[in-house]
Amino acid sequence: MDEERVYYSSSSDSLTPDEENDTFAQQPYSPEILNGLKVPGVPNHKLVLKRGVPIMLLCNMDQSKGLCNGTRLLVERLGEHTIEARIITGHYFGSLTYIARMMIAPTDKKIAVKFQRRQFPIAVCFAMTINKSQGQSLSNVGLYLRKPVFTHGQLYLAVSSVTNKNGLKVIILDEKGKDSTTTKNVVYKEVLRSI
């Protein structure tokens, strides 16, 4: 296996232009604080990668080539300014692509400080949420259900991602944290009444 390579976001993370004019807002947010922020949908300031590591795209890059938010890839080569990766899920399985750094800002309105980060739009991905698995075709799927899936259709979505039933493994815990063989499949009865 190749040596690992560390990528830091280009220059320091910065406040978005509309906040730079607010002197009060700038004071508590030094580059070190901004670099330390870990926000969903935004790559970390520091990425540690190796050849062969699975990664996931954090934004839509080129939908016509299968490069969408949630696409899983495998790192092939690590360059100074680009990462070569192979798509490992979906219709474009096996396609080679190159990923460059992008300017990314959090979209969650609940985040108090608006900042932007120039980094590769990826995260190391040994696992993914049920929502991120939507549209994926996977040969092996492992579900860890500490509690029942809480949204209509999510259990179906997770189970239907696997291409062969032999590739599906499920761990279910009951309310007391003990192994179980059953779980609730949340379905809104209102939906069934109209059928």
Q: What labels would you give this structure?
A:
alpha+beta, five-stranded antiparallel sheet, globular, three-stranded antiparallel sheet
Description:
The chain is α+β, with helices and mostly antiparallel strands and 195 residues long. It has five helices and 13 strands. The strands form four sheets. Strands 7-6-5-4-10 form a five-stranded antiparallel beta sheet, with no helix packed on it. Strand 11, helix 4 and strand 12 form a beta-alpha-beta unit. 16% of the residues are buried.
Give a quick summary of the entry.
13% of the residues lie in helices and 29% in strands. The protein has 195 residues and is α+β, with helices and mostly antiparallel strands.
How many angstroms does the end-to-end distance come to?
Answer: 55 Å
Strand residue percentage:
25-35%
Largest sheet: 5 strands, antiparallel
Number of domains: 2
Mean pLDDT over the residues = 81
Task: Count up the helices.
Answer: 5
* Shape type: globular
Secondary-structure blueprint:
Layout: E1 5-8, E2 14-15, H1 17-20, H2 23-26, H3 31-36, E3 46-49, E4 54-57, E5 72-78, E6 82-87, E7 96-100, E8 102-104, E9 115-119, E10 122-124, E11 141-145, H4 154-159, E12 168-173, E13 179-180, H5 189-193
Parallel strand pairs: 11-12
Antiparallel strand pairs: 1-3, 2-9, 4-5, 4-10, 5-6, 6-7, 8-9, 12-13
